[in-house]
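Model it.
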Amino acid sequence: MPRRPQPTARQARLGAELRKLREAAGLKAREAAALLGADSVQMSQIESGIAGVSATRVRSLAAHYACTNEELIAALVTMATNRTRGWWEEYRGLLPTSFLDLSELEHHATYRWDVDFLHVPGLLQTEDYARGILGYRVPELPENELDLRVRHRLDRRVILEGPQPTPYEAVIHESALRIRVGDRVASRVQLVHILEFSEADHITVRVIPFDLDGFAGADSAMVYAGGTVPKLDTVVRDGPQGAGFIDSEAQLGTFRTLFRRMEAASLDPQRSRDFIHRLAKEL
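Modeled.
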């Protein structure tokens, strides 16, 4: 298969998972390559996502690695053969690749969890709110690039509003709901927007109030995207250099535990809706 100049995060993840299976089997790259009749350079390109890999080779490698997890193997085969060019491709070359990688991750996710403390989660933002957040950076973005980023953020809502919506749960701290990214009217519209989304059967919104005693988890913001099997889950966290994708099993387990803690600390969905409704009336 031809080499890719820049693999997507999903393509790189497939290669990384194949590498993990090889290492678990105690094989060196050149040994695994020999089993395929390939060379170590080809194996390195497959494991880095630079080169694609066929379904046959994925299954052959899994057999050589003594992997018996049929669900994982099937999921890896799907990753290797599903070459969907989604709506996000129209932004390729126009926005940073991390924006496109996030959209592709969301497209394939089986469920999605968000935890936020300072801002309303991106999938629940109104256009005015998104423009306020994205336009606040220093140095300021050119107007055309800001417009692209806002439109991309709104387009991502297809996973919540499309014909086969993704199950979604958001845990939002009261601080994020009270911070006025825009003026009073825009803030009220944003709160009402969250309430409207929360009425959908596949969307759950929970609130962590200020007056909760013993809460020390304000550094636990996350985006958690469920894979077709738990080993293929992914956590996305914002950093100084952009979004970072986390996929080690140990860290995934930590973030699952953190999310359950955030969930347990929050109000139940109905009380959360009542809480947001009161905040909106105060504005």
